[in-house]
Amino acid sequence: MATAAPTPEVVTGPAPTTQPVALTPSAIAKVKEIMATQDPLPAGLRIGVVGGGCSGFQYSMSFENQQGMMDKVVRFDDLKVFVDATSAMYLNGCTVDYVETLEAAGFKFENPQVKSTCGCGSSFSV
Q: How far apart, in whole angstroms, are the C-alpha atoms of residue 95 and residue 92?
């Protein structure tokens, strides 16, 4: 007897206790702005955690043309954010913001699970 493929979990923002990641309005606007320049238009944004860096883990962001079978999907209006099950464990309660200062501009991750970061700030440990 064949078993059906698991149905991806869909979570709608902004309830931070039930979703693996939250995006600020500034981050959502910047992602949509960058996404609009892509051809073809991606289905959504993938946010994840990968091994590497000085402290063990790094954040990753990329555009995706389709969601994976085991992805959690978080919707922010018409923006879909895909998070794989493993990354969701490390991102639980994380907020992604887009910050512009005189020195730099970029996405900033505020993760309550992080115990330490490296000196350059691009990797972390839990």
A: 9
What string of H, E and C letters represents the secondary structure of 47-102? EEEEECCCCCEEEEEEEECCCCCCCEEEEECCEEEEECHHHHHHHCCEEEEEEECC
Question: Residue written as tokens 């962001």?
Answer: 61
What is the percent of the chain where pLDDT is above 90?
Answer: 51
d(CA 98, CA 26) in angstroms, rounded, equals 6
Q: pLDDT at position 126, please?
A: 58
Burial of residue 7 (CB within 10 Å: 0-12, 13-18, 19+) is exposed
| 26: nearest Cα among 78, 111, 99, 102 | 99
**Dist CA 122 CA 126 (whole Å):** 14
Cβ count within 10 A of residue 112: 9
pLDDT tens-digit profile of 17-57?
A: 468 899 999 999 999 999 999 999 999 999 998 887 666 78
Question: In the sheet where 57-64 sits, what is the strand order?
Answer: 9-12, 72-76, 79-83, 44-51, 57-64, 124-125, 116-117
Q: Which two tokens stand for residue 30?
A: 């910047």
